[in-house]
Amino acid sequence: MSFRPVLNGSSRIWQVDVLGAGKTRRGPAARFHGALKRRSGGGETVWPQPAEGQDSGSLNLISDANFATRWQVDILKVRDARDVEQAVRAAIASEQPLEIIGHGSKRQIGQPMGTNAVLDVSALNAVTSYEPNELIITAEAGAPLADVMSLIDSKGQQFAFEPMNTAALLGTPEVGTIGGMIGAGLAGPRRIKSGGARDHLLGAHAVSGFGDSFKTGGKVVKNVTGYDLCKLLTGSWGTLAVMTEVTLKVMPKPESERTLVLQGLDDVSANKAMTAALGSPFDVSAAAHLPSSAFRAGTEGPAEWLSHEAAITLLRLEGITASAASRAASLVQLLAPFGAARVVEDAASAELWSVIRDVRPFAAGAALGAWPVWRIVCPPAIGGTVGQQLARETGGDVIYDWGGGLIWAALPPKADAHAALVRERAEAVGGHATLIRASDEVRRNVAVFHPQPSGIAGLSERVRASFDPKTIFNRGRLSRSGVP
Predict the structure, then answer these.
(1) 59: which of 75, 134, 164, 217 is 20 to 30 A away, CA to CA?
(2) How far, in Å, are 364, 400, 414 from residue 382 at the CA level?
(3) Do 127-252 and 254-459 share a fold?
(4) What is the DSSP letter of 237?
(5) Model-level pTM?
């Protein structure tokens, strides 16, 4: 095997290229021990040698003693599930927590983690199986999401839950992975019709905090074998296991789509219009509202409404062309009391909804790019009241999705990002709030994820401990005691 240093900012990555047993290794002196450890004097990080009888061509990464400093991060690049197992077992033996990443596109979400070891699974990037006729795809966790979506799009298929692309909101490159999509579980506008990511994950292979590989689910929709652990892995933010491969359900893309656009409604009236549309027999697949806002001028988008200050309410219908057109005409008549609706078709409609899905009006490069952004989930019928009150009290801006059930709130900068007020308003209606974008300093002092009641928190901790008893994975990402 050979060692190749890769410099990346303040990090040195040691990539081990396996040439097979008995080959010469080049580069700085490197030693393999039975466990990962960091020496307080020399700052040395060493990785385990293969166990007795194990192929020596299976290990990983090493960083030298002279490069380690208090701010250095050791990035451990693995190539397959076997590497992941060894890395996790070494971390367990030394009680060294690991930050799990693909390309790190969502590292800004969650509490800052105090670890100097990163387990990078981006090399697990293959699509191992795709059966368009069976509507299933299997990919390794590090597979780029954009590439996978391009592949299924070429066959006229899609992920029906519309996974959110956080790049614009967080100001990061568009390098999200399949594993990150599942770990975050952030679904888009079609969530109200087709469900979330957890409803489309059929199976997964992963490595637990015991250092053991396990499999959950399968490659068929009607799979009832064993516990449905897929539901737990989705939205766990990498705190339960390291996913190495996932199998997802895909769905045919609709032949056509129509979006009705109502202008000038206030938040409460728009909420009523969305509720009426979603309660109609016309099979509305998405409903969103952008209130009147002076901050939206200049927002990049497919339609002139996005760059205007006027409020717009959007309602989407999908299906075969004749059906979508007929239902759109009927919905226009139903919503006549709320004003005259304009209809946007197909490509323009799809681009319009991508703006809503990715929350582009609050993009890091837009007018509100420096403001913290909250994601608030609440009962849809009262979302307009909650959002309107919050905007008035803080001087912030909001966007409604899921018919009012999802509120994106960009609020003026403050030391606590208005956490106490946001959580008070959310809890008053039985909702919860997550701080999606904020500075490291704010995230260190504010609970990013909504604090759970003691009973649920206890259950969550028991579930986590059953997967990762030593809290090796993403330690501290989901919670931190003593913050509001």
Answers:
(1) 217
(2) 28, 11, 26
(3) no
(4) T
(5) 0.85
Q: Are 61 and 74 in contact (CB under 8 A)?
A: yes
Tell me the CATH class for 254-459.
alpha beta
CATH tag, 127-252: 3.30.465.10
Distance CA 56, CA 49 (A): 8
Best CA proximity match to 431, nearest among 402, 411, 455, 458: 402
DSSP state for residue 195 in the 8-state scheme: -
Instruction: For CA atoms 203, 204, 205, 206, give the dihedral sign.
Output: negative
8-state DSSP, 302: S
Number of H helices, E strands in the chain: 13, 23
**CA distances, 338 to each of 239, 271, 332 (Å):** 46, 11, 10
Rounded to whole angstroms, the Cα distance separating 414 from 416 reads: 5
Indicate the burial class of 400 (C-beta count within 10 angstroms; 0-12, 13-18, 19 or more). Answer: buried
Query: 258 and 350 in contact (C-beta within 8 Å)?
Result: no
136, containing H or E segment: strand 136-140
Torsion, Cα 172 242 223 318, to 10 degrees, reads: 0
Return the domain boundaries, the chain. Answer: 2-120, 127-252, 254-459
- Mind listing the pLDDT tens digit for each residue in 418-454? 999 999 999 999 999 999 999 999 999 999 999 999 9
Measured distance CA(38)–CA(180) in Å, rounded: 28
pLDDT tens for each residue of 148-170: 999 999 999 999 999 999 999 99
- Please state the separation of Cα 61 from the chain's center in Å: 27
**What is the 8-class DSSP label of residue 163?**
B
Record the tokens describing residue 255, joined without a space.
């032949």
Where do runs of H (alpha helix) occur along 315-382?
A: 321-334, 346-357
